[in-house]
Amino acid sequence: MSENDQAYRTSKRACHTEEYGTDGPVDKDSDPLLTEPPHLGREGAGPQQEPGRVEHAVIKVPAVTVGFWVVKVAATTLGETGGDWVSMSLNLGYLVGTAIFAVLFIGLVSAQVKAAKLHPFLYWGTIVATTTLGTTMADFADRSLGVGYPGGVAIVFGLLIASLAIWLRAEGTVSVASVTTPRVEWFYWCTILFSQTLGTALGDWVAGSDRGGLGLGYENGAMLFGAGLVVAGALYLWTRMSRTVLFWAAFILTRPLGATVGDLLDKPVAQGGFNISRLYASLALLAFVVVYIWIVPQRPARSESQ
């Protein structure tokens, strides 16, 4: 019993004795002293929370684990081969391909925002949509707009920084653990889209020898971006560098890694590729992603309130 409750009972007992001249036994059901006193000092009229029970915000993105990065690289590679298949193999062009994948992206993000919990296939389907859309957007900027690989990298990098800056200004953080409201989810997915597009542009710039590219080739490009991921992992394990900064750095680096691996699979042998059909490569990667998600459990990340 709290001190306030004890004081309440003592006061009421004194009044009862003064009025009725007795302090003897009374009927329990009619005695106001034996009924539950009001909850003095407690604000709010809602139901009391059970002891030890804490309500947490719902977060609908997977926990960042090794498995997360395995699926991420496979999904980004799928985005490269799938985007090229639609825009190049089907000869629809970059603009039409971008329009198709933009509709798919908006539809999947809307479904993701409306979902009540994490649905792994919906989440990774949305990731694939950002990679395919990012592929066609980067190719449209590099080739159709005629700005070359350096120009495309500069444009998309500016869009990514702007997206992060607006998100940070509005919410005070760009941590994945803060993705618990519809508005933050849209910030998250727009930032994901620009990071995927930047990754495609970076991969083309490093590997390609035309349009201002560095000409390192697909194998060297894949090794370069793979080394960057190793460095990010080492910084995560052995330093106190911001986990949010390292997450976004690794997220961006997995995209050009996937882009160069995708180009390595489907480009002609004369250009340093394996000349595998874009359709077959895409179907094989899709099967891998589906089976991996089905076999390996996906748990949601912890929100900042947990």
Give the mean pLDDT: 82
Shape: globular
Count of DSSP H/I helices: 9
Give the helices and strands as they follow along the chain: HHHHHHHHH
**Strand percentage, roughly?**
under 5%
Whole-number radius of gyration?
A: 29 Å
Number of strands: 0
Low-confidence stretches: 14-24, 28-56
How many domains is the backbone divided into? 2
Name the structural class.
Answer: mainly alpha
Largest sheet: none
- Quaternary form: single chain
State the end-to-end CA separation. 30 Å
Share of helix among residues?
Answer: 55-70%
Q: What is the topology?
A:
Layout: H1 3-20, H2 66-89, H3 94-114, H4 120-144, H5 148-171, H6 182-207, H7 218-238, H8 243-266, H9 278-295
Helix pairs in contact: 2-3, 2-4, 2-8, 2-9, 3-4, 4-5, 4-6, 5-6, 6-8, 7-8
Provide a concise account of the structure shown.
The protein is an all-alpha fold and 306 residues long. 66% of the residues lie in helices and 0% in strands.
Could you please describe the fold and organization of this structure?
By secondary structure, the chain is mostly helical. It has helices at residues 3-20, 66-89, 94-114, 120-144, 148-171, 182-207, 218-238, 243-266, 278-295. It folds into two domains: 1-46, no CATH class; 66-294, no CATH class. Helix 2 (66-89) packs across helix 4 (120-144), helix 2 (66-89) crosses helix 8 and helix 7 packs antiparallel against helix 8.
